[in-house]
Specification:
By secondary structure, the protein is an all-alpha fold. About 65% of the residues lie in helices and about 0% in strands. The longest helix has about 35 residues.
């Protein structure tokens, strides 16, 4: 049996970012939006790489937004790295157990 890695979590995160977290460059955002935008930083960054009009951080925001955005962005990136590491480790163990 061969394990096929399907990146369903990033796909779900990008779809959720498209549906729920579109950042408007002219709107003023507070700390609550900083939490949401920081949580979806990586999916919005991927979207920004393909479409330069998509923002991954608001340009018109408060100091609370910056603080919340940085805290949640760092935590989110660490979470993605830990998840990817454990997924890779689980996949390599699963593939390695296929030896007969």
């Amino acid at each position: 049996m061969v394990f096929m890695f399907l990146p369903w979590r990033p796909i779900v995160a990008i779809v959720a970012a498209v549906l729920f977290v579109n950042i408007n460059g002219t709107e003023l955002y507070g700390w609550q939006a900083g939490l949401a935008h920081g949580l979806f930083f990586l999916p919005n960054l991927v979207r920004h790489l393909f479409d330069g009009d998509v923002l991954f951080k608001a340009t018109n925001c408060t100091t609370g937004y910056h603080v919340a955005w940085w805290i949640v962005t760092v935590g989110s990136c660490i979470g993605w790295l830990v998840d990817a590491t454990f997924s890779f480790m689980k996949a390599s163990v699963f593939v390695g157990s296929d030896k007969e």
